[in-house]
Amino acid sequence: FRRAHTLTVLFILTCALGYVTLLEETPQDTAYNTKRGIVASILVFLCFGVTQAKDGPFSRPHPAYWRFWLCVSVVYELFLIFILFQTVQDGRQFMKYIDPHLGVPLPERDYGGNCLIYDPGNGTDPFHNVWDKLDGFVPAHFFGWYLKTLMIRDWWMCMIISVMFEFLEYSLEHQLPNFSECWWDHWIMDVILCNGLGIYCGMKTLSWLSLKTYKWQGLWNIPTYKGKMKRIVFQFTPYSWVKFEWKPASSLRRWLAVCGIIFVFLLAELNTFYLKFVLWMPPEHYLVLLRLVFFVNVGGVAMREIYDFMDDPKFHKKLGQQAWLVAAITATEFLIVVKYDPYTLTLSLPFYITQCWILGIILVLTWTAWRFFIRDITLRYKEIRRQKQEHRSEKDKCLSNGDGHSSILDEQNGNKLRERKL
Q: What job does this protein perform (predicted)?
């Protein structure tokens, strides 16, 4: 029935597209016809995928919604592969087919400069530096980290990623000028206010979702209109709730997996800034916002698939399809950045930055070796030693009798006397 329904929808869509093309006279503009044909092909593919693709772990608001984003992931990955195989000039000018305002070099903007919170030299507005930083990206930071918290579902992982990204901005401000920010912009406005408040609200939402009673009732079985409206609203909440317990220190496998998740997360964050830089897209462009909306939807599914695979590898024998696509998309974006501007990426880090990163890597590797190798060997040695001591004490108790003589020793001496007699 599902396959017949899919063929019916595809047939109707194909007939509608053909009817539209036959009614109107085909323009002689090759670029316009090419864009229209590509869009129609993508629509047909999305229609097929929404009804035929494999279901993911989420079922609300509807499984077709998540199948749609899975197909969008495939389309986006194919688009990235196409951009990757173009020359730098052609790739940047190709963006004009999407928006004619693109394909123009971006003006540099530095968020650093004067870092005084209170500027006594400005009599009209001494706090002008603070007001200049309060742009549209402040609520974007908050809502972004609120949604990321709903994806990761772990407080300490969110805080580590938030702090680590600020360190990356410090380390890479010599490559991208917009990474240069004031210290209070890094730690007060970003980490504490925007990111911290978003993580806090996200954790409160997670607590409510974990305590909520998931007892679903059919819409037409609810007698009151208020109950029906409430049921429609709750359709956009999860069908059931799974609390993520990453437990990174429980085993070496989980520790490496969590480190890999943090690494991919940070790489995807960096790709946002570097792609804007190499493809000449202004930060406020709608394509940048669409990419973030895309990652919010596919990232949540990917994190759930990764957690299911780590938590129960016997049932989930292989990683989910959305997780593989997100990893492939992140890697392809990074390859585009490397190809389009290798000079910027190969700018050497300052010496003190290199020292800090080497020290951090050494500390992480040292802790890993101690936690999963040296500590385990030490605990195993202590356990064996304790068992030997317990066995020795039990043997001494068995050997000793009430008058202070050992029956087993007497038996051994008797055996020796018999051997001498023989």
A: Catalyzes a base-exchange reaction in which the polar head group of phosphatidylethanolamine (PE) is replaced by L-serine.
Q: Does the pLDDT at position 206 exceed 80? A: yes
Closest residue by Cα to residue 344 from 259, 391, 276: 276
3-state secondary structure at position 249: coil
Distance CA 271, CA 228 (A): 43
Q: Among all chains, which residue has been given the structure tokens 């570097």?
A: 274
C-alpha distances (whole Å) from 262 to each of 158, 163, 246, 266 are: 9, 12, 12, 6
- Per-residue model confidence (pLDDT) at position 404: 47
> Three-state SS for 88?
helix
**Contact yes or no for 280/105 (Cβ under 8 A):** yes
CA distance 187 to 166: 8
pTM of the model: 0.82
R_g (Cα) of the chain, nearest Å: 31
Q: Is the pLDDT of residue 5 over 70?
A: no
pLDDT digits (tens, 9 = 90+) for 326-375: 999 999 999 999 999 999 888 888 899 999 999 999 999 999 999 888 88
For 268, the enclosing helix (H) or strand (E) is helix 252-278
83's CB contacts (< 8 A; 6+ apart) are 91, 94, 279, 336
Residues 97 and 31 sit within 8 Å (Cβ to Cβ)? yes
Contact in structure between 246 and 306 (CB atoms under 8 Å): no
Q: Where are the domains of the chain?
A: 88-347, 350-386
Q: Which sign does the torsion angle of CA 327, 333, 337, 339 carry? A: positive
**In 3D, which of 255, 246, 262 has the Cα closest to residue 168?**
262
Q: Residue 76 in contact with residue 88, Cβ under 8 Å?
A: no
- Buried b / exposed e over 17-42, threshold 16 CB at 10 Å, is beeeeeeeeeeeeeeeeeebeeebee
